[in-house]
């Protein structure tokens, strides 16, 4: 029994998420993320009970791909509600159907709504945010292997070239997107064959995203790149949701 009669609950986070749980006798619970950062005054269950996270897959992806199930499980253990919608016609994705499907899944967005996107999922999230009413803000976004400037090695077939050009040439108001986006983190790999380094500029300069660079993880794309867990995405989501909580005090 901890001092003051409070017994910290057992959350069972050690195996699936490698999260350490600590306790301060004069405070609530706080967590130490996979990169050993401390978040004081951060009660895992109570602070996350109303937070929703939408994980958005990319071109050719699906909800059970790669690190999505791992991240979903880790976040659910911390009290987040997590949704991984299946977007339509993933081999030939189109902006209208993908954005509308995400909008239907989210319903009403608010400052307790968070997103994690991979690849074209990052574009989908951004275009969804662009469509929101001016006064509406969300909690934040973790972008993984995102892009707005250009793609490489994506024109293997005529249909692939059409898809790539449709998404890359369609106008998007990134300043409007940023107006709905108080916090974001953008994760890249230093050897991504599809997303050149200059794509980082929009995230850094317009969204003011924190940039995280992974080493030798390709397109961060599940079994193809050997990425079945992505601790940096988990840490990033916890970080931006924690910062939001601190702003409200």
What would you say this structure looks like, in words?
The longest helix has 17 residues, at 231-247. It is built from nine helices and nine strands. It has one domain (48-247): Rossmann fold (3-Layer(aba) Sandwich), CATH 3.40.50. Strand 1 (20-23) and strand 2 (29-32) form a beta hairpin. The protein has helices at 14-17, 44-48, 68-77, 95-106, 120-130, 158-169, 174-179, 200-205, 231-247; strands at residues 20-23, 29-32, 38-39, 52-56, 81-83, 113-118, 140-144, 184-189, 210-214. It is an alpha/beta fold and 249 residues long. The protein has a six-stranded parallel sheet, with helices on both faces. Strands 1-2-3 form a three-stranded antiparallel sheet, with no helix packed on it.
Topology:
Layout: H1 14-17, E1 20-23, E2 29-32, E3 38-39, H2 44-48, E4 52-56, H3 68-77, E5 81-83, H4 95-106, E6 113-118, H5 120-130, E7 140-144, H6 158-169, H7 174-179, E8 184-189, H8 200-205, E9 210-214, H9 231-247
Parallel strand pairs: 4-5, 4-6, 6-7, 7-8, 8-9
Antiparallel strand pairs: 1-2, 2-3
Quote the beta fraction: 15-25%
What is the count of helical runs? 9
Mean pLDDT, to the nearest integer, reads: 83
Number of strands: 9
Category by helix and strand content: alpha/beta
Query: Which CATH architecture would you pick?
Result: 3-Layer(aba) Sandwich
Radius of gyration: 18 Å
Indicate the overall shape. globular
Report the biggest beta sheet as strand number plus sense, adding barrel if it closes: 6 strands, parallel
Topology pattern, helix = H, strand = E? HEEEHEHEHEHEHHEHEH
CATH topology: Rossmann fold
Q: Please list the strands of the largest sheet in the order they lie side by side.
A: 5-4-6-7-8-9
CATH-assigned homologous superfamily: Alpha/Beta hydrolase fold, catalytic domain
The percent of residues in helical segments reads: 25-40%
Distance between the termini: 29 Å
Which regions are unreliable across 5 or more consecutive residues at pLDDT < 50? 1-47, 244-249
What is the level 1 CATH name?
Alpha Beta
How many structural domains does the protein architecture include? 1
């Amino acid at each position: 029994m901890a001092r003051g009669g409070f017994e910290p609950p057992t959350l069972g986070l050690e195996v699936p998420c490698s999260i350490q749980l600590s306790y301060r006798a004069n405070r609530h619970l706080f967590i130490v993320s996979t990169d050993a950062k401390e978040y004081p005054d951060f009660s895992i269950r109570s602070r996350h009970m109303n937070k929703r996270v939408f994980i958005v897959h990319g071109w050719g992806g699906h909800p059970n791909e790669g690190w999505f199930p791992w991240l979903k499980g880790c976040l659910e253990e911390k009290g987040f509600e997590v949704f991984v919608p299946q977007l339509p016609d993933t081999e030939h994705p189109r902006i209208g159907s993908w954005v509308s499907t995400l909008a239907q899944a989210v319903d009403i967005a608010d400052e307790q709504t968070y997103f994690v996107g991979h690849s074209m999922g990052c574009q989908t999230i951004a275009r969804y945010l662009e469509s929101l009413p001016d006064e509406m803000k969300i909690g934040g976004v973790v972008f993984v292997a995102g892009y707005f400037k250009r793609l490489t090695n994506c024109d293997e077939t005529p249909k692939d070239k059409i898809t790539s050009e449709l998404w890359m040439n369609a106008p998007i108001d990134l300043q409007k997107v940023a107006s709905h986006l108080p916090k974001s983190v953008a994760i890249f790999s230093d050897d991504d064959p599809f997303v050149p380094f200059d794509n980082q500029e929009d995230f850094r300069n317009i969204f003011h995203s924190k940039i995280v660079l992974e080493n030798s993880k390709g397109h961060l794309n599940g079994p193809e790149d050997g990425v079945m867990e992505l601790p940096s995405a988990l840490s990033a989501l916890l970080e931006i949701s924690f910062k939001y909580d601190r702003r409200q005090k």
